[in-house]
Amino acid sequence: MQTLLRVTNLSHSFGNHPVLSEVNLSLERGEVLGLLGPNGAGKTTCLRLMSGLLTPNYGQIEIQGINLAKHPLRAKRHLGYLPERPPLLPELRVDEYLRFCARLHRLPRRRITIAIDDAKQRCGLEDSGKRLISALSKGFRQRLGIAQAILHQPRLLILDEPTEGLDPVQMRALRGLIRELARDSGIILASHLLPEVQAVCDRVVILHQGRICFNDYLNDDKPIYGWRVQLGTGSTLLKLTALPCITGAVAIGEDRYRVLLEDGTDSAQLAQQIMNAGLHLRELIPERTDLERAFFDLIGVEEGR
Ligand SMILES: Nc1ncnc2c1ncn2[C@@H]1O[C@H](COP(=O)(O)OP(=O)(O)OP(=O)(O)O)[C@@H](O)[C@H]1O
């Protein structure tokens, strides 16, 4: 495996407000890593540090083995970055903008047209070259943001909330694109949405109050850990724990519970028993990995909705 990014003991404060503390992580080629955390957890700061837009107070970042602080230009040649708001120029057309970005990336003149065509093709923008950026939909702007980030074929791609604000169809298309791009590179994407990260990432790091509190691979084969249940208003923990199939339950929010089932019981039986008890079942979600548990314990129910 080829390590594209290595972050060692990264810490950063704004004034006397610590935002990141002792962050350590690495990324291999072919991997999509999700940086998950609630608003204000430090995700954007972490990405800005990794992309060289901010200089850390402490710690070291290496891209393709190149120290970012010591050799910023060399290191950044391997990096593509999509910030939270794509840095687009609305008065330009798509081709004009990509040509401008290609020059910023210092692509040789003879390679510019090929690079633009390739980036447009990968991002589904083949027919959009003549369109004004101000007239593009949010999804197409996001694609263009990614196209500018991959023009110079970077090995490492950093995407800050790439599907934020997209409709489900656009979201799906963009997830497909991210998986496709990961074949040749490594990708770090930040999100505050658990399902988003589960849909596209191989590995998840949870950042909470500037510290990594979870770092593990996602794997659909892992056994179901427990169930998250949302009931209608007026439910009680007592009524739930009275159900014969439940061996344990805790309240994790208003009318929301985490339950463990008796061995050999399945979700259909749980749903049936909930309804037989006169409770209204609104949601039943498996907690398949430690990730869900860590996420909801640390970050709270509302963030994961
Ligand atoms: N330039 C800055 N100056 C001062 N404080 C900042 C600056 N940028 C971020 N912060 C603070 O650092 C903390 C982490 O912010 P950051 O944007 O990294 O979090 P985040 O996890 O990306 O949040 P979100 O999901 O809302 O984008 C917040 O308390 C924020 O107010």
UniProtKB/TrEMBL annotation:
It comes from the Bacteria. The keyword ATP-binding applies. Keywords: ATP-binding, Nucleotide-binding, Transport. InterPro entries: AAA+_ATPase, ABC_transporter-like_ATP-bd, P-loop_NTPase. SUPFAM superfamilies: P-loop containing nucleoside triphosphate hydrolases (SSF52540). Pfam families: ABC_tran (PF00005). SMART domains: AAA. One of its GO terms (molecular function) is ATP binding. Residues 5-234 form the ABC transporter domain. Belongs to the ABC transporter superfamily. PANTHER family: ABC TRANSPORTER, ATP-BINDING PROTEIN. This is ABC transporter. It comes from Chromatium okenii.
